[in-house]
């Protein structure tokens, strides 16, 4: 049984075992599945863009023609060289093809199978774990440590530093999908090109804003201290199919902007002016709610809220089935506390 974990995965990706050419990638993080698949394909062939070197197959097509996978894997290239097969699992089972493949002697051919979040008793997963020439690699959602490593990796490549307050907010906004997180980081480093350090303002200005998904109302009501409206708007977001993690990300960004505005209030700036300065392009319809939030929250308390939201985000990733309940509880807690302070 070969199911890699932790550092074993990194070691295998850096130097794949030629004795195990069948590789199953699976997990909740589809972006990480794709990223690892691309890395394995790149190291398996001389040119991933060469159609003779790389064959792409759909799992449902293999299910309809079970012999095709083995036939492709045993095909000898016309011009020689190494080959790879990239399979994307669909809704139909092609386990029998994988079983036949595992009994075949593969030479200079790597087979990379991409699948979703497979349970331990899933037939495809069990088949690959039992096969002597296969390996399975889980691709779970990034935890805080993995997100931190990803941030450090991209910053090192761009030769940039990251301000401590910017790191806390940036880390909280990443993690739902590895490729999306990496794309956001590369966009951020490009935005900060020519600087020596990325600031909180850079993160706020550049990293994708969940408020584009019409999540401003639920977040505004939470920080302004209106629990009833939070419940109403949260229900609307859930009915619209919004991922709870996006709502938490919107709340984290909002808390960061409020903190910036609260610091101005501490320096004597009126709440109305601080709201306009702290919130770029603040729509007039939101101004009353933002000013109410500034009256309810101090800068130190907002730092605590940012930590609270970061914890809720991590919990929602660990317990995906309870993500909606965790997000709603976090927002209602903020609303109740704001109401007491207002």
TrEMBL record:
This is DNA polymerase III subunit delta. The keyword Nucleotidyltransferase applies. InterPro entries: DNA_pol3_clamp-load_cplx_C, DNA_pol3_delta_N, DNA_polIII_delta, P-loop_NTPase. GO terms for biological process: DNA-templated DNA replication. Its EC number is 2.7.7.7. Residues 24-90 form the DNA polymerase III delta N-terminal domain. The keyword Nucleotidyltransferase applies. It is an enzyme of class 2 (transferase). It comes from the Bacteria. GO terms for cellular component: DNA polymerase III complex. Keywords: DNA replication, DNA-directed DNA polymerase, Nucleotidyltransferase, Transferase.
């Amino acid at each position: 049984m070969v199911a890699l974990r932790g550092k074993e995965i990194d070691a295998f990706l850096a130097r794949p075992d030629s004795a195990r050419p069948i590789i199953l990638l699976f997990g909740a993080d589809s972006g990480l599945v794709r990223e690892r698949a691309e890395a394995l394909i790149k190291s398996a062939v001389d040119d991933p863009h060469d159609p003779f070197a790389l064959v792409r197959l759909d799992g449902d097509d293999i299910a309809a023609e079970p012999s095709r996978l083995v036939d492709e894997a045993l095909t000898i290239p016309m011009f020689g060289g190494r080959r790879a097969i990239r399979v994307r699992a669909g809704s139909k089972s092609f386990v029998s093809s994988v079983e036949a493949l595992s009994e075949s002697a593969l030479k200079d051919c790597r087979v990379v199978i991409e699948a979703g979040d497979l349970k331990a008793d899933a037939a495809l997963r069990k088949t690959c774990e039992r096969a002597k020439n296969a390996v399975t690699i889980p691709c779970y959602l990034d935890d805080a440590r993995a997100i931190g490593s990803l941030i450090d990796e991209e910053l090192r490549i761009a030769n940039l530093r990251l301000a401590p307050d910017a790191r806390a907010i940036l880390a909280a906004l990443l993690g739902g999908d590895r490729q999306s997180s990496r794309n956001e980081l590369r966009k951020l480093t490009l935005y900060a090109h020519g600087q020596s350090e990325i600031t909180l303002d850079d993160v706020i200005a550049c990293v994708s804003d969940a408020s584009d998904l019409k999540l401003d109302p639920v977040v505004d009501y939470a920080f302004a201290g209106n629990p009833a409206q939070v419940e109403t708007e949260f229900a609307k977001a859930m009915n619209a199919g919004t991922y709870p993690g996006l709502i938490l990300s919107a709340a984290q960004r909002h808390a960061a902007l409020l903190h910036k505005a609260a610091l101005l209030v501490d320096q004597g700036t009126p709440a109305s002016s601080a709201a306009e300065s702290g919130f770029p392009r603040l729509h007039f319809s939101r101004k009353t709610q933002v000013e109410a939030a500034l009256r309810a929250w101090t800068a130190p308390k907002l730092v605590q809220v940012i930590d609270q939201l970061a914890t809720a985000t991590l919990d929602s990733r660990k317990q995906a089935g309870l993500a909606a309940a965790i997000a709603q509880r976090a927002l209602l807690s903020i609303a109740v506390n704001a109401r007491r302070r207002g």
